[in-house]
Write a structure and sequence with these properties.
Blueprint lengths: L2 H4 L14 H30 L13 H26 L3 H28 L8 H32 L9 H26 L1
Helix pairs in contact: 2-5, 2-6, 3-4, 3-6, 4-5, 5-6
Length: about 200
């Protein structure tokens, strides 16, 4: 039997990019997500600017202060995510575990606070165009936070099982890229929806 007949599976894929294919895949996925958010921001623009809908519609008020605190929580989680990745690159397993655990807990706090905010705002997605756009934009972001938390939970569990090393840490890096995207997108949503 020849060597070719004994080979299992397809040959290794040719990689012309200097970026790992899995990392590139995450960047392309994020590009598609930016387009998705763009469509929701277009709806926001038409409701608020083109149609001249009051923002927020009286008598409702947006909890700007609570959302601001939530923004600080989420931005802080980007720093703990960065700390986790830099820790494993240096072989610091306890720093990795602490960073991932803190990132997960901060993200969970953000999401639970947002759900609590939903229960207290006094309007619903079906109230009017303002309510629809508000819940669509913040809810879309909340769904992304949930996905990010799922990725973080998997990475955190794996970190406690000793799956990462300074040479093999894509399982931390790729969820980290996604998490930073979620954080940056929240800053845009917060500024647009709550501040402007």
């Amino acid at each position: 039997m020849s060597a070719h007949a004994e080979a299992h599976g397809p040959p290794a894929a040719h990689q012309s990019s200097r970026v790992d294919a899995r990392t590139l895949g995450m960047f392309l996925f994020i590009a598609s997500e930016i387009m998705l958010f763009g469509s929701f921001f277009t709806a926001y623009f038409f409701v608020r600017v083109a149609a001249g809908t009051p923002w927020p519609t009286p008598p409702y008020e947006l909890p700007v202060f609570v959302a601001g605190i939530n923004t600080i929580i989420l931005v802080t989680s980007s720093f703990t995510m960065h700390w986790a990745l830099q820790s494993i690159k240096r072989g610091n397993r306890s720093g990795l575990q602490a960073g991932l655990t803190l990132t997960f807990l901060l993200g969970l706090t953000f999401l639970l606070t947002q759900l609590l905010e939903y229960s207290r705002v006094g309007f619903a997605p079906y109230t009017d165009a303002f309510g629809t756009v508000f819940f669509c934009l913040t809810g879309l972001h909340g769904a992304h936070v949930f996905v990010g938390l799922t990725l973080l939970l998997a990475a955190t569990i794996r970190s406690y099982r000793g799956h990462y090393s300074p040479e093999e840490h894509l399982g931390v890096e790729i969820p980290g890229i996604y998490w930073h995207f979620v954080d940056v997108m929240w800053i845009v949503v917060y500024t647009t929806v709550y501040i402007l």
